Structures
1.
Amino acid sequence: MEQELKNLIDGISPIDSDIFQKAKEHTAQLVMPPRALGRLHDISERICAIQRTLRPDVSKKQVIVFAGDHGIVEEGVSAFPQVVTLEMVRCFIKGGAGISVISRFVGAKVMVVDMGIIPDFIPENQEEKAIFKEKKVARGTKNFAKGPAMTRNEAVQSILNGFNIAKEAISNGINIIATGDMGIGNTTPSSAIGCVYTGESAEVMVGPGTGIDQEGIKKKIAAVKKGLDVNKPDPNDPIEVLSKVGGFEIGGIAGCILACAYHKIPVMIDGFISTAGALIAKALCPSSVEYMFAGHKSEEPGHIAMLKYLGLTPLLDLGMRLGEGTGGALAMNIVDAACHVFNEVMTFDQAGVHEKEN
Amino acid sequence: MEQELKNLIDGISPIDSDIFQKAKEHTAQLVMPPRALGRLHDISERICAIQRTLRPDVSKKQVIVFAGDHGIVEEGVSAFPQVVTLEMVRCFIKGGAGISVISRFVGAKVMVVDMGIIPDFIPENQEEKAIFKEKKVARGTKNFAKGPAMTRNEAVQSILNGFNIAKEAISNGINIIATGDMGIGNTTPSSAIGCVYTGESAEVMVGPGTGIDQEGIKKKIAAVKKGLDVNKPDPNDPIEVLSKVGGFEIGGIAGCILACAYHKIPVMIDGFISTAGALIAKALCPSSVEYMFAGHKSEEPGHIAMLKYLGLTPLLDLGMRLGEGTGGALAMNIVDAACHVFNEVMTFDQAGVHEKEN
């Protein structure tokens, strides 16, 4: 199974530097001062290089929300009871959550994947079956403050499950995917993964998540420290990192990112948990980062260190800290606007406008 | 005529604090951790208080691009020849400019207003007539480095023209307006207005605009300094400020903002030039600021000082510096998303999700 993952990773190539250059030449002709739309140009040019085209297109948008439960909640790290993971999945499927609304607004489909929720969600009709995918690796991770969160095989399986779910969406014509997450307690494994890769301390990496108080933050820092101490994950072995201090939905996100890179479409990373998945993806395949866009800067304080490590600048900074994929979904609109600018703004010649004098 | 303007300003009231409070209570019930979507909540609640409703709606979007020419270009302050003002207006109307594309993308109508272009644009068909409005106050301003840019009457006229154009759009059902500008040389009067209100020096306020070099920036700083020195505009008399160092499109933008406040709809301020218009609007009517949203942080270095003076935090920061209304148009999408979240996300009760434990 690990060989299967290795083969997929070997199939990932860097983005196309020739097309990147040609895209820059196109931007230079647009009827505006040089690069006057700033990052919109950077975005559209990179999409060109990702999609190997000078007609970048992200009109077929998919949000994939990976959900899982976490043994670490035993340590008192979350403000919400564990049953909320399933309850929120139900809410996503009913279309009433933040991610449901923002996805509808940006014209993105939503898919919700059970990567390892403790109870089962049973879809009741065709509509629910179209949104919900069951890819359960196990019924929640183990408490990583006491030992590995999952087996090495389970870690590989979670990445492959994420890969395959994304592959299926892409084969249906999707040309951009935003990653999302749901899992009570999942800022704690994300913090641990953040510590492993950025080298920051648990004190820097841990934040209030869904809104724990100072006492809760102390417990959370202690849990992360204990988890790192007990498990001693090796950063050079990202599967080990995921298995020792990760989560099933984090593995799913990593796999989803790798699938986007493999299939040459852009992937929009949401906030703290999705970025933890991106850290695993980068460690498995450094060039996967070229396919990533950072949707937004989360309010979770450790997020910025993770983004810095990845070398990504977030598109939005709106004080959001919900997860679910909300920041990524909203940012897909910016990326789409950038592609429209690239494709539709006239050149100086076409518009009959005088160019700069000096 | 000045009395007419005064009467309109007297008709502007602050936003509704009761509805603001009720909107906050609604947000607190949404199925997510408290205020987890950050500024999206702040935005939707303010729209409620602006529109006097708990069903905020910004689906009917209008971008109004105010265009004018500037005598100050004699001082060598712009990288583009003056004829480009008209050429770009033509491009807006053909639908090929940055603002055309971004407006289409966000579902906003575009209107282009000749507030004082030197040559005339003659619309050729019904379609062009629907987009283009002729409200010419004069054929370009005078060189304000040598004396007032316009008469006091012309300043009042430009504000009233902007007011009336926006009023017409609102009477057609528009529920959010983004301001835009076109005018070769117009970062120079905007810088001068910025100096008057923020108290910053010309050195801080002046930037490269459409892309002048260091030599050009020196000329531009000198022009602003000369203009302020020759005209000595009194900040307590915003009509005087506009007449002495302003522009017709800047007056139009100020009037448009006042009309939005008068008619209780939100107004999205674009970048540097639009924000200069907002400074005039604020000086005429301080509570008009409550109706403003700052679309984005322009790359023009003086912009942030203006925004700080207004007390507005920009929604986007994407390195844009095109003007035309592009930053405002793109940001209307964020505001629209915020309203959808407010209206469509379920409450904890509706979703059947457990609330926070502590």
2.
Amino acid sequence: MDYQLYYWPTIQGRGEFVRLVLEEAGARYRDVARETGKGAGVAALIRFLNGRNIERPPFAPPFLEAGKLVIGQTANILQFLGARHSLAPKHEGGRLWTHELQLTMADLLVEIHDTHHPVAAGLYYEDQKKEARRRAADFLKHRLPKFLGYFEQVLAKSARGENYLAGMRLTYADLSMFQIVAGLNYAFPCAMAKAARKCRRVFALHGRVQERPRIAAYLASPRRIPFNDEGIFRHYAELDAG
Amino acid sequence: MDYQLYYWPTIQGRGEFVRLVLEEAGARYRDVARETGKGAGVAALIRFLNGRNIERPPFAPPFLEAGKLVIGQTANILQFLGARHSLAPKHEGGRLWTHELQLTMADLLVEIHDTHHPVAAGLYYEDQKKEARRRAADFLKHRLPKFLGYFEQVLAKSARGENYLAGMRLTYADLSMFQIVAGLNYAFPCAMAKAARKCRRVFALHGRVQERPRIAAYLASPRRIPFNDEGIFRHYAELDAG
């Protein structure tokens, strides 16, 4: 195996951004916490977080073992894998730009999560429903159009044919954009139906990534965990303004 | 000039993490939005955000011009500057680790911001005071100890003498850790007085960075904008549980 991925076994969450890159790269990897047996399962993940005998303990999943390296933070893992598997530009300007786009998506992801957990990640949704309504309404009215409009503008500017966010070739940022649109479609179908009209390029990119052979095969496989209401993208009808 | 930094002129905000690196590196830079005259001021910053005639428009400040490059996203800028100015390890494992730490601090920073703006960044604090109380209480009880405890553990593990987060040499992550402790001390003096007892290494690191000649000179200069209640770190006594 080339890689061991550690992430919570029942949700797509942030781990999914790593899985998509590993799948598109055709890398051999174990999804450790989803396996059973010795040295696997959630216990193996927790052992890393406890940090004993680990030189560089990650703060939270996902993290990736690659030989002797243990790499945490989603965008950091993607930057590492992107360089190794030709899923990022080689020249400095393109590399920095791809990572910048990824970090902007990471910001968006936090805001998506906080629509259903504006008060505390450790509390149930039911304990912050009222606050969630306020936050989700603001998110859908102001933040979502701003973010999607930004990525639409980036794709429109891509002088070389609008194919991908950072130019003519697929990068890890495109895989993440796919995942964010997929997740938003699940969580906020009404709001996204509206957004689709204004952000045709973003939605077209989602479609192009979805049809890539390795991604299509992955999405159809049991390795793809279905969206559910424990992850970052949750569908609560009362939060989705039509 | 080597660099042009673009950030809002009246707050430390995320721009401060870049300023600290530029100052420690002894780099020549312009803080464009704080200057007046043609091609300066906030108007110059807005022009970049509007994205016309800019190949790779940033989503938000701070962003940095370095020759022909325009680099956005704080952690991305720091990674770039760290490599250029020997404020990051040269080997892959150390580089990844430093960036991982930085991204964990970026996560913490969002949570700090959201203590006073849990509903919407676009609304006034006064319009979300009740929600802020709930969020801040949870943050101080659960999240702050978890984050500071993590960095304390990282410093304790640093086999080579506990001097800096990523080993014996100062990196951009240490400068950011300094800024986060400084900001938290301003925003939550009661909670931080408690935390100081449990996280001695983190606070000692803050002290060591503060005393570095270039940082000390910077902090004493008018280039350092004082903390105020428009930035990320705000002092609202009602949010600071003693």
